[in-house]
Amino acid sequence: MRTLLCLAAIFLLSTLPVAAQTPSTAPPPEKTAPAAWATYLQPAAGIAVSSPVELSRNTAQVLPIPFSKGSVDVKFLLFFNFLPGTSDPPTMISVAVIEPVTGKALLNLTPKDREGILDGLPGGVAGSGGKVIRQEEYRFGDFSGRDFIVRSEVGGQVRRIYGRAILIGNRILALNVWGPENQVETPEIARFLDSFRLMTDGEKRLYGTTNAAEMIPVDAAGREIDPAKVKPSPTEAPASDVLVVRRSEGVLRGSAVKQAKPGYPKDALDARIEGDVVCEILIDTDGKVIEASIISGPKALQEAALAAVRQWVFRPVSLNGQPVRVSGGITFRFNLGK
């Protein structure tokens, strides 16, 4: 069973661009010049990441993922680029969005099969001649994921890969840093992996139905960085280069200077509805919540959770002396017995 599920992740090997697999016949794309970190939105998946280089789309591919009772044909979009000034082979970062070709096949899998697919991903990235150096569970709200470090050999090149994969609903989101064999875990690698978040409500309103198959760079005000595509109105605040970093729920709760508990909705009480509601929040540089949305939880309890979390206030965060915004998840537990 485990061997079969490990095969489910082999497709991630093909997310390494052809340029990196066969450098003698397909030269790598031109490297992007060094630039400040920017936030990139992927509207099709409703996600955002921060990157120091532009993330370009590769050709979408379709491959099968086996599981205990068959296989699921999945398609995935790959976004990648090489980091300028890095060694030979150059370090590459990538974001892969993987989902079934049709239907909700991943969503309909049993919890055991979903966890099994995640368990097999690091081995699939490492490949038959590679090695899983480290693998551990990662949680994104209610969603399961895996953090891993693997050693892989592709096209005669030995790579050390730092990765994170998360299974959210009917999609797998995978972030990878493909470094040389001696690549160490740097603050920049952690910054890239930790930057993963869901798009805010405001971002969805602006970009949710446009450029769905691209990575869109935006500034801290949510405007597309290319001024030829988005022209700010005179009433809008000027753009600023404010980074968004992600923090775990434990860190967020520890930094909260004001918390509010949600009231129990009467309709939910009458219907005896209980459970956990996970809210995704975006915290501004002054510590106030400026965006809040629902990741999961009973619908009857969601508005109460959102009303509460919008009242929270956090200690402002700086990175290298610069104020940053913070994203993360807060869970509220509604229990009829308490």
Oligomer: single chain
* β-sheet strand percentage: 35-45%
Mind telling me which CATH architecture of the largest domain this is?
Answer: 3-Layer(aba) Sandwich
Kindly identify the CATH topology of the largest domain: Protein Transport Mog1p, Chain A
Gyration radius (Cα, Å) is: 21 Å
Total domain units: 2
How helical, in percent, are the residues?
10-25%
Give helix and strand order, one letter per element, not per position: HHEEEEEEHEEEEHEHEEHEHEEHEEE
Helix count from the secondary structure assignment:
8
- What integer is the average pLDDT? 77
**Class derived from helix and strand content:** alpha+beta
Shape: globular
**Could you describe the largest sheet, including whether it forms a barrel?**
8 strands, antiparallel
Alpha-carbon distance between the termini? 42 Å
Model regions low in confidence, pLDDT < 50 over at least 5 residues: 1-35, 227-241
Supply the CATH class of the largest domain.
Alpha Beta
CATH H-tier superfamily of the largest domain: Mog1/PsbP, alpha/beta/alpha sandwich
Let me know the number of strands: 19
